[in-house]
Structures are given as C-alpha cells and as structure tokens.
Amino acid sequence: MNKIYQKIIPDGKNLIKGKISGFTLVGLLVVVLIIGIFAVVSYPQYRMAVYKARFTQLQAAAQPIMRSFERYYMETGTQATSLDELDIGRPQTSSLQIIVVGGGNVVPIDHVRFQMPGKLPGVYYLWFPYTNKSVEGKHYCNVESGDESKRELANKICRAVSGREPDSCGSVGCRYPMY
C-alpha cells in the first residue's frame, strides 16, 4: 500500500509543505484576459469578413441575370421589359430578392436591385442595364437611408467591398461604384 501511495505522490513531505507545482489563479486570469482582449479586437473584423462574403454571394447570384439581360439585348436589339422575357430562371438562393425598377409593356427596365434583407442590413447591389446613358452598365453597392445604425454599418460594408468612397449621396442613400 505504501508503494502505491509513493508512486502517485512521490514525496509526501512536499505535499504538506505546500510545494505543489501547477497554475496559479492569477496566471489563469491573465490568460483569460488576453483571450478576451483578442476576441474583442478580432470580432469586428470577423463580422466585416462575413458581410463581404455575403455581398460576394449576392454578386455571384446577380451575374447570370445581368448576362441574360445583355444576351436578350444582343439577340433582339431591344431591352427586356420584365424578368419573364429573359432566358434564365430565378437563382436558387432563397434569401435573394430581385427588384426590377421600371419596365412594363414597352418601357425598358431602368435598373435591377439585388438584396439579401436578413443577411445584409441596408445594403443592396444595384445594376443599370444599357438604357440610361449616364450610368449604363455600371454596378454599385448602394446604401439605403433609414435607421442610423444600419446606415452606418451599410456604409462600412460598401466601403469595404468597393474600396472606394461614394460617388453620390442623397436622401435615398449613398452609391459606391464597384468598377
């Protein structure tokens, strides 16, 4: 019995004198504090990376639709007046919303707005077909006006994805040119 006890605690006298080696409470608190500071500093960067990835996903979902508009124009010589005239179905992304502004029976589409409401707050991807000569074929990261906190976050997202400052801001929001 004495031999087993000595294998677990080699020197029973050290146990009584308080010479046990290990981590102190202060040392553990310092490590937890360092990890906490790292988390506080890195979380905003992580969140912005997630938003940039979602915007990239939005752009990728919008590309086939924009190409379809261009194909339609090359084939017919006129602009599409609705999404139904295009040779493409709706994207499989369930959170993507496509809003066509303008269009009708004979009126060409003014612009197309792609957005992911729950995932990109206050931000949408805007594309102008070749109907408006001043902005034809241009792509924008657009910020909606509205809630101040959402607008501030949306401006940060658009600034990060476009790498530019807005070319115009107004009562509707700000437009950041993409290319």
Description:
It is built from 4 helices and 6 strands, in the order αααββββαββ. The protein has one domain. The chain starts with a helix and ends with a strand. The chain has helices at 2-8, 12-17, 25-76, 148-162; strands at 97-102, 109-115, 123-127, 139-144, 168-169, 173-177. The chain has a 6-stranded antiparallel beta sheet, with helices on one face. The protein is elongated. With 179 residues, it is an alpha+beta fold. β2 and β3 form a beta hairpin.
What structural class should be given to the helix and strand makeup?
alpha+beta
Task: Kindly report how far apart the N and C termini lie.
Answer: 80 Å
Order of helices and strands: HHHEEEEHEE
Strand coverage percent = 15-25%
Largest sheet: 6 strands, antiparallel
The average pLDDT score comes to 77
| Radius of gyration over all CA atoms, rounded | 29 Å
- Could you name the ranges where pLDDT drops below 50 across 5 or more consecutive residues? none
Q: Compute the number of helices.
A: 4
Summary tags:
single chain, alpha+beta, 6 strands
How do the strands and helices of this protein lay out in sequence?
Layout: H1 2-8, H2 12-17, H3 25-76, E1 97-102, E2 109-115, E3 123-127, E4 139-144, H4 148-162, E5 168-169, E6 173-177
Antiparallel strand pairs: 1-2, 2-3, 3-4, 4-6, 5-6
